[in-house]
Amino acid sequence: MVKYALNNCKAAVIWKKSQATRNCSSKTKNCAERTKLCANNLASTRQRQNRNRRHSGRYSPRKTKKAGYTPVCGNEWAKGVCEKPRVKCGKCPNRNLLPLTKDVIYRHLRCKDPLGEDVIGVYPMLPDETCCFVVADFDDENWREDVKVLREICRDNGLDAAVERSRSGKGGHVWFFFIEPVPCSLARKLVSVLLTLAMERRHDLSFKSYDRLIPNQDTMPSGGFGNLIALPFQGLAAQDKNSLFLDDSFEPYDDQWAYLSTVDRILPAQVEEIVARLGGGNELGVLASTEDNPNKPWEKKPAPAPLVQTDFPEHVQITRANGLYYFERKQ
């Protein structure tokens, strides 16, 4: 099943087998009943963690229509309490982050809002700078070819990576689930190693579609939670076969819950072994990137401005001495 382990004020997603999932997958239940049952089961699992939880909600401004995510706060836009945009959320003394409840999960799974404002995202990085999963994000028309090779590399190394089509349908997410939290730096190295091997295997692919890893940091940023990932199974998007997990033919599995129950989570020892065996001390290669330096090394940089006559001096004095030429620019 899908088990949301929302640890230490951060949300992490772990997929695990359980009888509850088989109940969710029962063909005797209609869609609405299954969705409610799954939301209740996920919320029950969350409650057993007995820790604070944080998540983000999607917003879509009517004017700019540029959607984004923001931590769900009980005081957001409250008069006399919330001082956005003058005071950033990370520095607000009145921030009241709301928990992830079964109702929030249910609305996400149903997601009837045409603007997607029922959709929620979670922060993979935990306060101790570990994570229970890492995601490789691909956004480009050639993302399927790149993901296919990465999937092959994962299988060659005994890893089970789950591929999800993004909400827009124009990209994909490759999920790696850990059986227990591992340091974010180690998790990111693991996927970077696999990406580098994939590039070496298929030199004809540029991997231009690769965007970033989530989490995209090794350490917790000051005043923040790190970057987030929108959760799959977004109601309206799922109707278009997006926000769902895909088979080798890039078609959604008929029973998403049954598929997730078969996904093997990765042991910390496996992560360490693969990084040590394949890393070679330079596992990030040209794919190294952080939020502070989002430039992609494989993308062409803007061409420099062409030289013009004024770039050159009017006179140049050349002095020959001991077989060497010295150029002196005359002002």
Task: Summarize this structure as a short list of keywords or feature phrases.
8 helices; 20% strand; 4-stranded antiparallel β-sheet; 331 residues; alpha+beta; DNA primase, PRIM domain
Task: Describe the protein's architecture and organization.
A hairpin with an 8-residue loop joins strand 3 (56-59) and strand 4. The chain has one domain (2-287): DNA primase, PRIM domain (Alpha-Beta Complex). With 331 residues, it is an alpha+beta fold. The N and C termini lie far apart (76 Å). Strands 4-3-5-10 form a 4-stranded antiparallel beta sheet, covered by helices on one side. The relative contact order is 0.14. The chain contains 8 helices and 12 strands. Helix 2 runs antiparallel to helix 3 and helix 5 packs across helix 8 (268-278). It has helices at 19-24, 31-47, 102-110, 143-156, 184-201, 235-239, 256-260, 268-278, and strands at 2-5, 12-15, 56-59, 68-71, 120-122, 130-139, 162-165, 171-183, 210-214, 229-230, 316-321, 324-329. The model is unreliable at 1-29 and 41-52 (pLDDT under 50).
Count of helical segments? 8
* Rounded radius of gyration (Å): 24 Å
Note the main sheet.
4 strands, antiparallel
Could you tell me the CATH topology label: DNA primase, PRIM domain
Low-confidence stretches: 1-29, 41-52
What order do the SSEs take from the amino end to the carboxyl end, as H and E? EEHHEEHEEHEEHEEHHHEE
Helix content: 25-40%
Domain unit count: 1
Strand order of the largest sheet: 4-3-5-10
User: What is the beta-strand fraction?
Assistant: 15-25%
What's the total count of β strands? 12
Q: Kindly state the mean pLDDT as a whole number?
A: 75
Q: What is the CATH class?
A: Alpha Beta
CATH homologous superfamily caption: HP0184-like
End-to-end Cα distance, whole Å, is 76 Å
- The assigned structural class equals alpha+beta
What would CATH call the architecture?
Alpha-Beta Complex
Write down the overall geometry. globular
